Amino acid sequence: MHTNAHLPLSGLRNALLRRAALWGTFLALMFAGVVAEAATLTAVQSRKVHGTGTFELPIDLTQGIGGAVTVEPRAIGAGHQIVFTFDVPVTATGAPVAFDEAGAAVGTATPLIAGNDVVVTLTGVPDNKRVTVVLPNVNGAGDVSASLGFLVGDVNNSRSVSASDVQQLKAYAGQAVDATNFWFDLNTSGAITAADISAVKGRVSRTLPAVPSTLSVSKTGTGTGVVSSSPPGINCGADCSENYPAATVVTLTATASAGSTFSGWGGACAGTGACIVTMNAARSVAADFTLNAVVVPPDPGS
Description:
The chain is about 15% helix and about 35% strand. The protein is mainly beta. α2 packs antiparallel against α3.
């Protein structure tokens, strides 16, 4: 067993002082927020102030941006507040970012740490968007994210605005906002009024956009060739993948190089004719090219 018994009193005193100094430094760092607990995301909500009350719409964290996302039907106003709640206090995060259904950055995201919550205020986000908010490096560790839709008037969370939304909102007209009806108060005035009904009526037939799907092409075999697409986007060659809007019908054509033969399709297509795919999900297609056999003529002198 290691002890300090062999140290003279002065050496023992110095060793204890060094240990105390190290422990004091650790405590100082911890209370300064440098040493932080790993944080687990427990909930995400969309928060808005209605008159004198604040109400939060829970976000379904099981849905990705292309899925049945929770829709925030209330107008953006001064910004959308997305509240990330963790199981421990948050001491630091990276800069949050927001992306739309096409993967493009959208709006401006500003964080505010408040105990176990990080409130991300989104500004500049247009209506009728699917958005993923990414909060990176929480407490110096992992990233978290939440996906939701912004569609003013979609009070029944169907990801589209219809006559059904109008009828549901009319049933609450004239009521003051409370925890049972706040999402019908589209303009967050504190009461459900004719202005809210008018806002829904003006947006009937709007639908959240679908997430583009990726078409990927690969080439196999001993030969060479090019695969092109209509509508344009793939020239493989060098450009072998493209994102297409949902339900786009894409035709792929394979052209063998000199000395090669196109042998057929694999993946989402088969045969040797044109490959036609409907982009209602990600698709992968393989084009097989075979190097032609070289026929060596007989030596006339043999």
